[in-house]
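Students often ask why inverse folding is considered easier than folding. One informal answer: many sequences map to the same fold, so there is more than one right answer. In these notes we will look at a single instance of the problem. The structure comes first.
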């Protein structure tokens, strides 16, 4: 199994776990949840959040931006970056994320929406340090 297939399997496991929790799990104010205001602004819904947050979590894990279960497997992350040379750990961008999300069959518009939802959530919570100029 190559690195991409292994990562797809991990994301699939995240989605399965989310399915077991139910759609209400994705409603609220945490990073992986959607509140009413965000739903209107980003044109997302709680049903979509399961896959979208799993893919976003994988993206940040592979980049090493966020230390999560995916990032814990450093060899897998390095193997994914080797297969996807445009995955630059020094660049966090909507274009890069849309390309990454496409691997998981996420539509470009939905990928952009979740990217900016996450970005604004990080700004609101003062944790978007990777975007702050030195």
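Output (designed amino acids):
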């Amino acid at each position: 199994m190559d690195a991409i297939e292994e990562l797809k399997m991990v994301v699939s496991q995240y989605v399965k776990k989310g399915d077991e929790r139910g759609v209400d799990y994705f409603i609220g104010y945490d990073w992986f949840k959607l509140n009413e205001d965000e739903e209107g602004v980003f044109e997302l819904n709680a049903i979509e959040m399961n896959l979208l947050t799993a893919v976003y979590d994988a993206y940040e894990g592979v980049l090493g931006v966020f230390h999560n279960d995916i990032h814990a497997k450093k060899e897998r992350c390095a193997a994914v970056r080797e297969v996807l040379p445009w995955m630059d750990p020094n660049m966090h961008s909507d274009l890069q994320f849309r390309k990454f999300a496409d691997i998981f069959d996420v539509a470009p518009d939905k990928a952009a929406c979740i990217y900016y939802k996450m970005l604004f959530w990080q700004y609101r919570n003062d944790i978007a340090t990777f975007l702050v100029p030195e």
